[in-house]
Design a protein that fits this description.
The chain has eight helices and four strands; from the N terminus they run ααααααβαβββα.
């Protein structure tokens, strides 16, 4: 349910930003709101306190953000609060960020390797990814995972390319076990 709410609210905010031609401004405002909420523990406590009525929470949001961000963002925040979805705001922000990057054709990539990659290797990987995707730019998170033994694991959105030695060894082990089980079954049928 929470994922659905974050998607519904995030998509609504995204559509407002696209229709108004204010994607960058909206993202900047939402970053500021997120930062303000994360840094103000007292505000979070008030917004999640079960004994404070929704109307008070809505007034509090209006007082905090009216004049600081656009009326669209303030209105959006008040709707989310009035619907009792304040706790979903971080997920809404994440969804909105993902949609904006998708819209702007910014690829978010995680590249895991067994050892730190050299600058030339990183550039080769970046070039290959740019050539094989529709993205205009890439945000690459380079990670080292020694358990991979060798090779790379590349994640772009929900797609994963696992070329790690660890994965290949696991595949080989599975194939050998299957062959061993098949041979055992063959031997049992022959007896």
């Amino acid at each position: 349910m929470a994922k659905l709410a974050s998607k519904v609210y995030g998509e609504a905010l995204f559509q407002i930003a696209v229709e108004d031609g204010r994607i960058d401004e909206m993202m900047e405002e939402m970053r500021a709101v997120r930062k303000a909420l994360e840094e103000n523990q007292e505000l979070q406590a008030l917004m999640t306190h079960p004994k404070i009525i929704k109307e008070e929470k809505v007034r509090l949001i209006e007082n905090c953000f009216s004049g600081q961000v656009s009326d669209d963002v303030t209105g959006f925040l008040t709707v989310v609060v009035s619907k009792g979805r304040f706790r979903e705001l971080p997920k809404v922000f994440d969804y909105l960020t993902m949609r904006v990057k998708e819209y702007k054709k910014i690829g978010v990539v995680t590249v895991k390797s067994a050892a730190e990659l050299r600058r030339e290797q990183k550039e080769q990987i970046r070039s290959k990814l740019m050539a094989t995707t529709d993205y205009k730019t890439l945000e690459i998170d380079w990670q080292v995972d020694k358990s991979l033994i060798g090779g790379l694991v590349i994640r772009i959105g929900d797609r994963v390319v696992d070329g790690s030695l660890k994965y290949k060894l696991n595949q080989l082990t599975s194939q050998l076990l299957k062959i061993s089980l098949d041979d055992k079954k063959e031997g049992e049928r022959a007896s």
